[in-house]
Amino acid sequence: MARIELDNVSLTFQVRQKRRVTLKEFLVKGLFRRSVNPVMQIRALQDVNLKVREGDRLGIIGHNGAGKSTLLKVLAGIYPPTHGKRIVHGQISSLFDIALGFELDATGWENIAIRGYLQGETPKSIEAKTQPIAEFSELGKFLDMPVRYYSAGMMVRLAFSIATAIEPEILLVDEVLSVGDMAFQEKARKRIREMMAKARMIVLVSHDLDSLARLCDRGLWMDHGKVRGDGPCDEVIAAYKKSVQGDGAGRNGHIANGLSANGSLKHNSAPRPEWQRAGDLRASERNVYSWFGEDGILEEIVRRVGAPSKFFVEFTDEPGQARHNCARLAADAGWQGLFVEAGELELQCIAELCKNKPAVACVRGRVASDNVEQLLAAHQVPREFDVLSIMIAGNDYWVWQALERWRPRIVAIQYNAQRPPPQRWVMQENASYRWDGTDYYGASLASLAELGKRKGYTLVGSDSAGVNAYFVTNELATPGRFLDPAVQYYYSPPQYGPHLRGHPAGTGPFVEI
Amino acid sequence: MTAYLSAVWRCRYFWLSLVRMDLRTRYRRSVLGVGWSLLHPILMAAVLCFVFHRMAGQDIWHYGPLVLAALAFWNFFSSCTLQGCQCLFHGESYIRQYPTPLAIFPLRVTLGTAIHFTIALSVAIAFGVAVHLMGKIVDAQGHPVPYDWFSWLTLIPTLLLVVVFCWSIAVLTGFGNVHFPDMQHLCEVGLQILFYASPILYTPEIISDSRFAALFNYHPLAAIIKLIRDPIVDGRFPPLFPYAVAGVTTAVAFVAACFALGRLQRRLIFHL
Known about the structure:
The complex is a heterodimer of chains A (about 525) and B (about 270). Chain A is about 30% helix and about 20% strand. Chain A has 16 helices and 18 strands. In chain A, helix 3 (about 110-120) crosses helix 4 (about 125-135). Chain A starts with a strand and ends with a strand. Chain B is mostly helical and about 270 residues long. Chain B has 11 helices and no strands. Chain B has helices spanning about 1-10, 10-25, 35-55, 60-90, 90-95, 105-135, 155-180, 185-195, 210-215, 220-235, 240-265.
C-alpha cells in the first residue's frame, strides 16, 4: 500500500558563497585569517509534518521560494532531511528536472534505453515501450542522431515521453507542463491526466491554481519552508489567494515562477505596488519566452513609444543560456528582425522557435565593436529600426558604443548589477572574451547611462532582477511617458546566478568611464 | 550493506548501458574502433623497447612483455584515478533526478577502463607467450627457462584485486574532487611522480641501493605489478609477500571508499 510520511522534517542548505572550498582554504582555515568563503544557512524546510495516504491527490502551493520544489525532492529521496524522518512505501516516479540527464553523445534511441533503465525498466520491458515513446515524442528520424544536436525543446519532448511511459504508484510532478510547442503541450497535459488517473498517489506542485483545484482533492500551502495550511484543496487555495491579495502581490493576474531554495533559477517576483502607481517598467515584467520579465517590459515600452518599422536586432552570447529578449516580438508579434547568436545550441533554440517566420533571420556569429556595423549592413537592417537588444555578457558596452550609423529607437542592454551606481565600471574591450560564469562582464549601470547620454539616449527602465537596462532616444522620452529619476533609482540588486546573489567574483582589466 | 549492494544490482542495466555507451562513443567514427586500444600498447611498447634497447642495452625479448604488462596496469590505474575525479559530476544530472546509489558512477569508470586494461593485458600475454615459445628467454647457461602455464591461474585473483582497488580509488578521488576542486590537479601531479616511482619502465631488481630496493617490497603498486608480471613474463607463481601487500592496500582503499560512500553519499547532492 502506497504511503508517504514526513515526521518533523527540516532541511537546511549550507551554501558557500563561492560554491566550493579549495584545498588551500581548507588548509589555512582558521589559521591566518577569517574565511573569505563563509557558509550561509538557508532553512528551506522547517518542521514539516505530512501524511499522504493511498488515493490522495495532493497539490502544493505557495510563493516563490516557499519550499515547494524542495519538499518534492525530499519526498522523492533526492534531498536527505537534516532533521526528522521520511517514510515512503511504494515505487516513486518523479517528473521534475526532466530535461537533465541525457548522454549527449548517445542517440535518442540509446537515451530512451538508458533513461528507461534508470527508471527501473529491464531490457525486456523497455523493448515494448520504446516504440510508443518514440511515437509520442514525434522526433522521427532525429532519434537516430546524437542528442547533442537536439534543440532544447526536442530534448524536453524526449525526456517527457520517456518519463511518462511508466505506470507509477506514487507520482511526483513539478510544473512540467511547459514542454515543447503548443500542440505538444496539449498532448503532455493529456498524458499527465492519464497518469494521474492510474497513479495511486499524486503530489503536484504548480502555480496554476485553477488546474490544481481541478486535479487535486487536498491542498498544502507552503510558506517560508513551513506548512501554513493543509486541508481540502478549495479551502487552502481560497486562503492562499486571500493572503496573496492582502499582500498586494500577484495583482497582474498571474503568480509567476520564482526562486526555489536550491538556487535553480526560475524567476520573477510579483511587482511592488509603488512601481505600479509610478508607471515604473518593472511593474510590467512578464515572461513568455524571457526569464527576467523582458517580454512584458518591451511590450510596454513599445506601447508607450510605438514601433513604426517593427524591426528588431538582437545580439546574444551567453554560453548555456538560450534566452532572447526579442523572442516574443519575433514569434508572436509578427516583427521582422535579426538574431545574431554566438552559441550553436542556443541558435538552434531560437531558430526552432522562428522556423515559420520568414521575416526573422537567425544567424550564428559573434558581435564585436569592429564588426557590428558590417553585420547590420550585410543583413540590410534599416537605419532607423525599433528595438536593439544586446546581451553578450562581455563587450556589450563597446558594441553599443561602436554602433553609430544605425539608430535604434529602443535599446535593451545587459548591465552588470554587481557594480552598483555610482560606480563607473566597464570591462576592458576584449574581442576574444567569452563569459566565464563570473561577474566579470559588461558594464555598470552608471557607465551605460553615461554612454547613453553621449549617444542621445535616456535611461527609462530596468528589470527587478538587475539584468537589463532599457533606453529610448531622447526624442521619445517626452515628459510623462517615463519616469525621470536618478540612475540609482533604476538599479536593482542582482537576483540571478547561483542562489540569486549574482555570479561569483571574477577579475580582469576594466576602465572607469 | 546488503541493501546497498542490492540497489546497485537493481540498476545494473543502467550502469551497464552507460559503460557500453562510453565505449561506443569513444570509438564512434574512428576507423580502427577498438583496434586503437590494441594498437596503443603495442606501439608504446615498440617505442620503449627501441629506446631502452638502444640506450640501455635492454634485451627486447624480456623487456617487451615486462613493460607491456606494467603499462597495462598503470594506464588502468591512472585512468580510474583521473576519470574518477569527474565521475560524480558526470552523473550529476542523474543524481538530481533519481536517488541512485552513487557507487555506480565510479563503477562505470572502472568497468569502462577495465575493458582497455583487458585488451592491453592480452597483448602483453600474447607477447610473453610468443617469446617463450620461441625460446628466447634463457638462463645463464643458455637453457630456456621453464614456464609454468598454470601460473596464469593466479591472474584471476590478481585482476579481481586490481578492479576492487581501482574502483576504490575512483570513489575516493570522485568524492575528493567534489569537496576540493584542486583534487584533479593534485592527482595529475601525483600520478606523474608515481609513474617514475613505480617499477613500470624498470624492475625493482635493477636498483643497486639495497635499502631503497627493500622499500619496493612494500610499494603497493610495485606489489601489484609483480603479481601481474610474474605469471605473464616468467611463467612462475608469484611469492606470497606481494599478495599480502596488495591485499592490505586494497582492503584499506576499499574500506575507505565504503566509509566515504556511507558518510558522504547522502549529502553529496548539496555539494554538486
